[in-house]
Amino acid sequence: MHGTGVRVTLVSPASVATDIWKGVDERVARPPSQADMLAADDVARAVLYAVTQPPSVNVDELRLSRS
Q: Are strands 16-17 and 10-13 parallel, antiparallel or unpaired?
């Protein structure tokens, strides 16, 4: 993809507080506590940061967690 203008960033968030956790059967997986989860806005801001950098800046990876 070199020279095409396509850029790639790996976004690796920890648990995010979304409605998906409402359907988790606690007998199968224990959901993390709300205090340990990222807000969806935190992830969105990180992605926005990555995609708004100038072409001379390469954001290879974003790891997001509460700790």
A: unpaired
